[in-house]
Amino acid sequence: MDRLKLVIVDDTLIVRERLRDTIAGIGTYEIVGEASSPAEALALIEREQPHVVILDMKLQGGTGMDVLQEVRKRDAQIRIIVWTNFPYERYRAVSKAMGADYFFWKATEYDKLLDTLRSLPGAPTNAHQE
To answer: What share of the chain is helix, strand, coil (3-state, %, to 5)?
Structure first.
């Protein structure tokens, strides 16, 4: 099976580094890029056409919701995992309504994020789950 292409979008370098190092150990993924702003993220996603995007809510010069909305206009098949420090149910509901496949809180759900990455099937679909 080919490796799934993954993009990490987070405004904090140390978070991106930690994710990159951990995901590299999973083996199923090829991290094809990282971004810290909506503009960088959208350009990267357009260029690389990833299967999975890990997306922070707070970005430099905008929000993850800006990215989520634009990506969903262009491609319903990319799996989008919202990964945030803002665990509010309202944000979860809005993220899901806008097309996020998953929503995890950075402080307590790191293992759930990794378990989800390990369990994603090789062929991307738009199955919205939590």
So the answer is: 40, 25, 35
pLDDT digits (tens, 9 = 90+) for 5-33: 999 999 999 999 999 999 988 888 999 99
What distances in angstroms separate CA 55 from CA 1, 2, 20, 74, one per listed residue?
25, 23, 13, 16
The identity of residue 7, as a single letter, is V
Separation between Cα atoms, residue 84 and residue 57, nearest integer Å: 6
Find out whether 55 and 99 touch, Cβ atoms under 8 Å.
no
Q: What dotted CATH number matches 4-119?
A: 3.40.50.2300
Dump strand ranges (E) for the chain: 4-9, 29-35, 52-55, 58-59, 62-63, 79-84, 102-105
Report the C-alpha gap between 98 and 111 in whole angstroms.
24
**Distance from C-alpha of 122 to C-alpha of 4, rounded to nearest angstrom:** 7
| Predicted local distance difference test score (pLDDT) of residue 123 | 37
Contact indicator for 58, 81 with CB cutoff of 8 Å: no
The domain ranges of the chain are 4-119
